[in-house]
Amino acid sequence: QVQLVESGGGLVQAGGSLRLSCAVSGGTFSRYVMGWFRQAPGKERECVAAINWSGARTYYSDSVKGRFTISRDNAKNTMYLQMNSLKPEDTAVYYCAAEPMRNIFSVLTTAQGYDYWGQGTQVTVSS
User: Fold this and answer.
1) So what's the pLDDT on residue 96?
2) CA within 20 to 30 Å of 54's CA: 28, 32, 78, 119, which one?
3) Closest Cα to residue 85, out of 60, 67, 62?
4) What is the DSSP string of the chain?
5) How, if at all, do strands 46-51 and 32-39 pair?
């Protein structure tokens, strides 16, 4: 059984920082492409960042580029999202996602491309 568990969410003021973690168990983490998604009230789930097997290739949405950093530690079976300069519009439930992938260069940015999801962690940014 593959399980993903997010942690690190919370309430911060605008301009603050948070680091989200996603711990993965039950699978071969080093062969999973990973991503971070968020869903705000009334909006569709969107990809904010994604990362390939090794961590050498990454994707960021335009709204978070330059502020967020995705990384992974395959030895710890954990993915991270460092979020700096947070804005109120970053407020959402953040989900980590994983997909087995044979292509070592692949980065997935669509929710329907992922089979495994965490339960989500709330990030609230106050003004």
Assistant:
1) 97
2) 119
3) 67
4) --EEEEE--EEEETT--EEEEEEEESS-GGGEEEEEEEE-TTS--EEEEEE-SSSS-EEE-TTTTTTEEEEEETTTTEEEEEE-S--GGG-EEEEEEEEE-S-TT-----GGG--EE---EEEEEE-
5) antiparallel
| 33: nearest Cα among 106, 86, 88 | 106
- 76-95 confidence digits (pLDDT tens): 999 999 999 999 999 999 99
Q: What is the pLDDT of residue 28?
A: 73
Q: Are 45 and 112 in contact (CB under 8 A)?
A: no
Which amino acid would we find at residue 125? Answer: V
State pLDDT tens for residues 34-78: 999 999 999 999 999 999 988 999 999 999 999 999 999 989 999
The token duo for 122 is 């709330």
